[in-house]
Amino acid sequence: xxxxxxxxxxxxxxxxxxxxxxxxxxxxxxxxxxxxxxxxxxxxxxxxxxxxxxxxxxxxxxxxxxxxxxxxxxxxxxxxxxxxxxxxxxxxxxxxxxxxxxxxxxxxxxxxxxxxxxxxxxxxxxxxxxxxxxxxxxxxxxxxxxxxxxxxxxxxxxxxxxxxxxxxxxxx
Length: 172
Hints:
Distance between the termini: 21 Å
CATH topology: Serine Threonine Protein Phosphatase 5, Tetratricopeptide repeat
Structural class: mainly alpha
């Protein structure tokens, strides 16, 4: 049984990851430099693009374990997108946990099963690990990853989204 339905679909997914990284990095830049352009809409757009990318991966893979990891990540990032513009209350912690677990498991499975190609698999795994570390900072009882370290992880996360998107777009 094949692990993917279409090889051309990964290019579209790569564009979504690339766009998500660029929008997220622009949001970080505008937050620190131009304070009038700040707000939750940058994160909303970035996280929504990331959720769509994971959802497309869910649609195009036939392996059940990969599909579960991708849909959990997609739901988590979609809830985080909504939470960036509206208050979710206790659901926000659930959103962080879903995005963290789904993204990390998806990154590990993509690397183990060689879903894209070698460099793209490695970039996807590193992006997933950085995303998991960055998302740990949103859980209230883990305060170590806040402040400067949280900002550094956020910047590396945005850069790794761009890198993963570029590598996923490349052909084998």
